[in-house]
Structure formats: structure tokens, C-alpha cells
């Protein structure tokens, strides 16, 4: 009873006795005491409604202590639910401004937290008192049949923690550690500063019983990269017109990690800028989100780089876009090669290897290659992919949605236009490839094609989109093809597009259809948007509430840049007038 004497149960509908009884039915007293004591350290911020969002919780770092602490608890529970498998918890706000922070959870598979657990995450993040928090946890563990407390002390949960370079990261990581350890017997292991994809990769490897350190991650990257380089046909080797690539690290963790990797990459002429060491601010005028949305040159790049192949990472290095500054440019505009173009390059290369194999496939077991895009995909990219004869499917914004759909194919390539994506190989298909690799004659075209596919499956992060592994794959494919960035850009011509962020009092007032192409609420706005779209040849536009920033996003495309800009502006005006 002493446990509750200290707590003001206020206008609770149940008594301390009934609370004690109902809590202990799922958790013993020492577990309850542990949760109540630690949660006292992390009161929830007043009048803030927290929501799990597109990729976890995100917001002003000063308001996140209690949320991170509570997600620490959730991660430990997730580990216990899945037989003490390792779960990852990453402290990052990715592309957001430096004063923000956030949390992404890596499930034991290495993918994003199961969406079934998101409502629980929302509930505990918003619980207004320790008592309510404990009560919610008790209900949840009972429903999920998770045994916690004294009897679990010998079979603990394990949570690996990582953080990006944000100044608020270290203290938030301590909050996460306390959250994890408040589930008795659970262990939090601090893996230090990492990119988000590194942590996802390490969690996946650990749970598969593979070597799972950061060094193993690097070793895997350069071994598979070198293998692909060795498989480049001789005829293609000298064709690459521009061999140097310059990477914009967004003043975040990605540039720093690429520097570490560079030591082993002697086949790549690589220059890294915006590492954050020279006083640049994370994501400010730099990085993949800035370059992709604004289509302008990031800080640190300029006329000296005309026609050179350049790439940008985002703040936690899970997004990658390419760009170059055209010769004729008198402004700071860039030619952007976004996630759609990377997807197209990957699809072309994979298809080329599969064609070599499938021609030889006597049993007729042709592989299923599919691609997944979102409503943001440029219409021209979708036309191009269909013209390649590929299965193109659409998913809602958020890698968690794309990943799920890509996993339905033997090889599923998914990319968001913002540069977030990867290539998934099904386990069955990998086994088939490995068996085939053993059977085929070394040095034959078929053997080379299989070996390339196996190397791609090792190089490209199977857990989540990864700027480092994506960069290496783009680089090796360009060398394989003998293509410059300009040649790659000619695969198709993007329809002009524009994206705008609109600040509104309540972005949740916008409700969309599942594909996010139409707004169901506020009532009447979609008709007004449709009327605008009709005014523009090849016009297309949609709105959706962001799940990472407090804005409504507007996307528009049309046959000219002026028309796309004008359509986006008109739709933004509609958003303001309906929601302002
Ligand atoms: C996250 C998600 C991405 C999503 C992006 C923007 O990226 O992982 O899938 O496209 O947010 O989402 P929204 O438009 O809802 O703000 P990141 O790189 O910021 O973690």
C-alpha cells in the first residue's frame, strides 16, 4: 500500500486499493514501484498533444523528455513481447530543424515499429500522470500477455539506443535509458552516435544472429561495394565522364560516418562537405530535404561545382538525393535527381540482371520485381517505370507503408520522391539466388548477373532506406553503365512540380483518402482544389497533414514550372482560407 500513499489519486473513479489490486494483477509491486518512481522524474508538458506521426514522435526537444522516457518503456515491452529480441530506439528528428528532436523505434526485424503498437505509443505519451501511465501499461501488458516484473528478471528485454548529432540528443538518451530500465530486468545499451539506418541494420543483424557492430556495418558496405566494382564489365569501365562525387552531409551524422567509410573506399573519388565541423547548422540551407523541396544549391556548393555529380543526405542519413548545377545556370537552381530517379536507376539495373537470368530460366520461375511509390512521385517517373514493364503500386507517405508493400515482391524497390527508399529481397529469393550462384559456371554472364544481385542484396540496407548504402549503389551502377549524372538524368524528364508548407492552427483538420490524393475534410476543399487543377494542362495537386512537422503539405505538378508554382500557390491559399 505504501506505493500509493504518495500519489494524489484525485478525482479517480477507483480507490488506491482497487488501483493496487488491478495493477498487481498484471505486474508485481516492485514493478509498479519502479514505474511510479521513474515517471515522477518526467512530467508531461502542459497542453501538448503528442502524436506518433509518420516516423515516430517529433517536436521541440525541450518538450520531449517524458515522451522519450515513455518510448523507452514501450521499447522494453516490445522486446519482451517478442521473446527478448533486441529492439532499437533512435533519438533523431531527421530533416527537422536543429532545435527539434524525436524518436524512431526499430522493431526486431530492423523495420519500423509495428503499426499495431502506435495507438499504445500515443496513449502513454499523452498520459497526464504517473498513475494513468501505470494503469495504461498494466492494461496493455495484460491484453498482450506480456509477463513483466520479478519473474522476468532473468530473461530481460534488450534495447539498443542510438542518437544523431543534435545537442539535445545526449540528455534525451538518458531519459530513454531510464524508461527502459524501469521495466525490471531490462537492459538499455548505448550504441553512441549513429545514423538511423545504421541502428536499424545493427538491430536486424543482431536478431538474425549475425555480426552486428558498427564496424560490421562498414565492412559489409565496402565488401559488397568492392564485389560490385569487380563485376563491372571492362567495356564500361572508362566511360564515366565525371568520376568525382561531392556529398553534402547536411551538417549531420551522415557526413561524419561517410568520412569513416571513405578510408576503405579506394574505388571512389569522394569529397564530403557540410560535415558540421565548420560551424554549419544541421539542415539549415543544406541537406536532402532542403535540396529536394527548394531545388536550389545547398550552402558550401557553387559555380566551382558546375556539372559535377553531387549528392545530399538528410539529418540522420536515411534520405539521399542527387543534383548538379547546370552550366547554363545563372541562378542557384539545381537539376535534381530525386528518389524517383534513384528508383528508376535501381530498377533498370536490377531488371538488366534479371533479364540475363530469366532468359536462362528453363523452369519458367520468373522473378517478381515490383516498385512502390507515393502520391508525391513525379508523374513522368511513374510513366517511365510502367514503360519498363514494371508493376507499380502506390502507398501512403511514410516508409513504414512502402516497406510493407515492397515486401510482397521477390524484389521490391520502394522510394519516396524525398529520397527515402531501398530494395528488399525476399528471403526465399535470396536463397534461390545463392543456390543458383553455386550451380552456374564461374565467369558466365548468368553467374555475373546472379553475383551482382547477391552483392546488391548485401550492399543495400534490407531494414530501411539508407543514404550511405544508397550512395554506393548509385555510384557503382553509374560506373557499370558508364553514365554521367547528366546521362542518368535523361532517363525521363520530370514534370515541373512544386511543394509548399502551410502553417495552420490545426493540421489534423485535414483528413485524406488512404492514398492521400484527395482531401475528405474540411468539407468542400477537394471540390475547390479540383476546380483549380482543371485550369492547368497536366495539372495534379493534393494536400495532406505532415506527420513530422506542424504544417499542411501542398504538392502540385503541371506542364510548366510557372503553372506548377501557380497551382501550388492557389491550393495553398485554399488551405489558408478553409483552415486559417
Ligand atoms: C519521415 C518518414 C518519411 C516521410 C517524411 C515526411 O522522414 O520516414 O517516410 O516521407 O518523414 O513525412 P511528412 O510529410 O509526414 O512530414 P524523415 O527522413 O524525416 O524521418
From TrEMBL:
The active site is at residue 94. Residues 85-118, 140-207 form the Alpha-D-phosphohexomutase alpha/beta/alpha domain. Pathway: Nucleotide-sugar biosynthesis; UDP-N-acetyl-alpha-D-glucosamine biosynthesis; N-acetyl-alpha-D-glucosamine 1-phosphate from alpha-D-glucosamine 6-phosphate (route I): step 2/2. It catalyses: N-acetyl-alpha-D-glucosamine 1-phosphate = N-acetyl-D-glucosamine 6-phosphate. Its cofactor is Mg(2+). Residues 500-573 form the Alpha-D-phosphohexomutase C-terminal domain. It is an enzyme of class 5 (isomerase). Mg(2+) binds at residues 94, 314, 316, 318. InterPro entries: A-D-PHexomutase_a/b/a-I, A-D-PHexomutase_a/b/a-I/II/III, A-D-PHexomutase_C, A-D-PHexomutase_C_sf, AMG1_II, AMG1_III, PAGM. Residues 212-321, 338-483 form the Phosphoacetylglucosamine mutase AMG1 domain. It holds the Pfam family PGM_PMM_I. GO terms for biological process: carbohydrate metabolic process; UDP-N-acetylglucosamine biosynthetic process. Gene3D superfamilies: Alpha-D-Glucose-1,6-Bisphosphate, subunit A, domain 3, Alpha-D-phosphohexomutase, C-terminal domain. The keyword Ribonucleoprotein does not apply. Substrate binds at residues 416-418, 544-548, 553. Interconverts GlcNAc-6-P and GlcNAc-1-P. Belongs to the phosphohexose mutase family. This is Phosphoacetylglucosamine mutase.
Amino acid at each position: 500500500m505504501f506505493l500509493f500513499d504518495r500519489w494524489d489519486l484525485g478525482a479517480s473513479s477507483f480507490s488506491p486499493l482497487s488501483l493496487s489490486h488491478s495493477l498487481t494483477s498484471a505486474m508485481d509491486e516492485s514493478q509498479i514501484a519502479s514505474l511510479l518512481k521513474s515517471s515522477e522524474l518526467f512530467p508531461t508538458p502542459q497542453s501538448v498533444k503528442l502524436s506518433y506521426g509518420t516516423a515516430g514522435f517529433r517536436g521541440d526537444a525541450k518538450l520531449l523528455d517524458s515522451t522519450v522516457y515513455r518510448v523507452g518503456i514501450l521499447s522494453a515491452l516490445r522486446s519482451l513481447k517478442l521473446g527478448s529480441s533486441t529492439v532499437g530506439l533512435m533519438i533523431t528528428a531527421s530533416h527537422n530543424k536543429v532545435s527539434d528532436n524525436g524518436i524512431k523505434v526499430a522493431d526486431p526485424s530492423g523495420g519500423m515499429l509495428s503499426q499495431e503498437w502506435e495507438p499504445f505509443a500515443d496513449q502513454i505519451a499523452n498520459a497526464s500522470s504517473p498513475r494513468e501511465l501505470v494503469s495504461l501499461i498494466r492494461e496493455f501488458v495484460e491484453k498482450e500477455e506480456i509477463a513483466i516484473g520479478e519473474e522476468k528478471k532473468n530473461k530481460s528485454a534488450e534495447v539498443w539506443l542510438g542518437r544523431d548529432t543534435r545537442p539535445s540528443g545526449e540528455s534525451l538518451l538518458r531519459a530513454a535509458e531510464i524508461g527502459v530500465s524501469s521495466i525490471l530486468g531490462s537492459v538499455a545499451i548505448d550504441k553512441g552516435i549513429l545514423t538511423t539506418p545504421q541502428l536499424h541494420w545493427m538491430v536486424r543483424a543482431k536478431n538474425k544472429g549475425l555480426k552486428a557492430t558498427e564496424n560490421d556495418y562498414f565492412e559489409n558496405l565496402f565488401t559488397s561495394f568492392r564485389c560490385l566494382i569487380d563485376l563491372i564489365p571492362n567495356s564500361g569501365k572508362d566511360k564515366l565522364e565525371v568520376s568525382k562525387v561531392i556529398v553534402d552531409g547536411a551538417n549531420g551524422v551522415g557526413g561524419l560516418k561517410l568520412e569513416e567509410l571513405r578510408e576503405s573506399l579506394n574505388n571512389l573519388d569522394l569529397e564530403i562537405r557540410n560535415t558540421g565541423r565548420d560551424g554549419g547548422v544541421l539542415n539549415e540551407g543544406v541537406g536532402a530535404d532542403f535540396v529536394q523541396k527548394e531545388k536550389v544549391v545547398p550552402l558550401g556548393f557553387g559555380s566551382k561545382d558546375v556539372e559535377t555529380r553531387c549528392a545530399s543526405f538528410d539529418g540522420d542519413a536515411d534520405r539521399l538525393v542527387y543534383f548538379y548545377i547546370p552550366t547554363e545556370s545563372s541562378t542557384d537552381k539545381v537539376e535534381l535527381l530525386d528518389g524517383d530517379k534513384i528508383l528508376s536507376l535501381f530498377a533498370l539495373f536490377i531488371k538488366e540482371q534479371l533479364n540475363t537470368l530469366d532468359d536462362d530460366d528453363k523452369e519458367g520461375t520468373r522473378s517478381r520485381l515490383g516498385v512502390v511509390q507515393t502520391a508525391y512521385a513525379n508523374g513522368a517517373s511513374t510513366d517511365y517505370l510502367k514503360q519498363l514493364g514494371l508493376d507499380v503500386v502506390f502507398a501512403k507517405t511514410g516508409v513504414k507503408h512502402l516497406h510493407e508493400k515492397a515486401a510482397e515482391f521477390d524484389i521490391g524497390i520502394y522510394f519516396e520522391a524525398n529520397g527515402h527508399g531501398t530494395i528488399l529481397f525476399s528471403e526465399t529469393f535470396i536463397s534461390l539466388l545463392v543456390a543458383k550462384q553455386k550451380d552456374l559456371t564461374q565467369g558466365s554472364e548468368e553467374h555475373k548477373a546472379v553475383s551482382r544481385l547477391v552483392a546488391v542484396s548485401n550492399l543495400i540496407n534490407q531494414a530501411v532506406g539508407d543514404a550511405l548504402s544508397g550512395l554506393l549503389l548509385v555510384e557503382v551502377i553509374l560506373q557499370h553503365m558508364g553514365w554521367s549524372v547528366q546521362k542518368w538524368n535523361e532517363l525521363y524528364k520530370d514534370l515541373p512540380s512544386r511543394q509548399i508548407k502551410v502553417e495552420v492552427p490545426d493540421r489534423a483538420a485535414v483528413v485524406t483518402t488512404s492514398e492521400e490524393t484527395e482531401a475528405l475534410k474540411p468539407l468542400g476543399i477537394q471540390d475547390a482544389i479540383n476546380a483549380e487543377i482543371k485550369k492547368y494542362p497536366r495539372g495534379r495537386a493534393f494536400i495532406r497533414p505532415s506527420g513530422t512537422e506542424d504544417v499542411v503539405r501542398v504538392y502540385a505538378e503541371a506542364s510548366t514550372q510557372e503553372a506548377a508554382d501557380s497551382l501550388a500557390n492557389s491550393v495553398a491559399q485554399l488551405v489558408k482560407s478553409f483552415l486559417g
